[in-house]
Amino acid sequence: MNRIGLLERAAEEARQLRHSWLGVEHLLLALAEPGDASAAGVAVKTAGISYHELRNALLSLPRSYVARLESGTPSALALTAEATRVQARADGIAIGLGDSSVGSRHLLMAIVWEPSSQVMRIVERLGASRQALLTGLRNGNVRVPSVGTPEDVRMGGTRSA
User: Fold this and answer.
1) pTM of the model
2) What is the pLDDT of residue 35?
């Protein structure tokens, strides 16, 4: 799936949750939809992330987190700073892999490499991990750059992701 399609699905998820922002949380939720058969969507599901569990987790986000992101009405979604960084990182990943356009696989890789991400804390609470997401992509024959994840960097290692 291309970036525009994923952003449109993520925006719909944000509206259904009555959020006035479009964040990384909504991108991941769109990838977790049961009907998504893209390599990234399959990787999310094989990592153990259920659409319904993720959606419930987003409904349970701390009020302080939600209040910090609220900036308008659900009909005029504002892209969060984190989602903007993830998109820029996805651009870089696509270029680095020699791909001509950004797809859901690039966005998922960018989400995985976002340090201190609220959505990755949710992923971990659901029993999945950054490595499981990357393994799911690899199992779908997606080329994944050989760089460490944020955990690897914090631990002082450079293990391949």
Assistant:
1) 0.81
2) 83
